[in-house]
Amino acid sequence: MKSWIPSRYCIACHGPFAIGGGSIPDLRYASADVHARFAAIVVGGARAERGMPAFGDVLGTDDALAIEAYVLELQAAAAAREATGAD
Ligand code: HEC
Predict the structure, then answer these.
(1) Inter-residue contact 56 to 43 (CB < 8 Å)
(2) What global pTM score does this model have?
(3) Does any ligand 1 atom lie closer than 6 A to the CB of residue 42?
């Protein structure tokens, strides 16, 4: 597994995946459909016409799945915070 730095390719638009702003979706709240197509979106450019670039020249499917795993960790942490009301 290549080391992956969240900020490197995604932070310019998605921040550290902990925020969404303007028309950029907060990846922590991505739908099951998005997760099913995560690699297709990130590597294959399935949403390229909507402003989400393809990263197939710099990232492989394994990288996309590592990013997805990281996003799911953030999602679980956010859900836990909401459940407890803690900040
Ligand atoms: C140039 C800005 C830009 C960069 C850089 C970028 N994204 Fe996006 N991303 C977008 C936009 C805009 C959308 C919304 C596209 C749409 O409406 O379908 C999006 C949507 C997504 C979605 C679908 C989310 C959803 O709920 O519909 C995923 C997953 C995603 N990006 C992952 C990534 C990852 C991982 C990276 C880094 C490898 C990245 N993006 C880098 C602009 C960017």
Answers:
(1) yes
(2) 0.88
(3) yes
Q: What DSSP string runs through 5-42?
A: -HHHHHHHHHTTTT---TTS--GGG--HHHHHTHHHHH
The residue extents of the domains of the chain are 30-78
Tell me the pLDDT tens digit for each residue of 35-79: 999 999 999 999 999 999 999 999 999 999 989 998 898 889 888
Closest atom, ligand 1, to C-alpha of 10: 37
Is the domain spanning 30-78 CATH 1.10.760.10? The answer is: yes
Cα 10 to middle of ligand 1, angstroms: 8
Nearest protein Cα to ligand 1, atom 8: 52
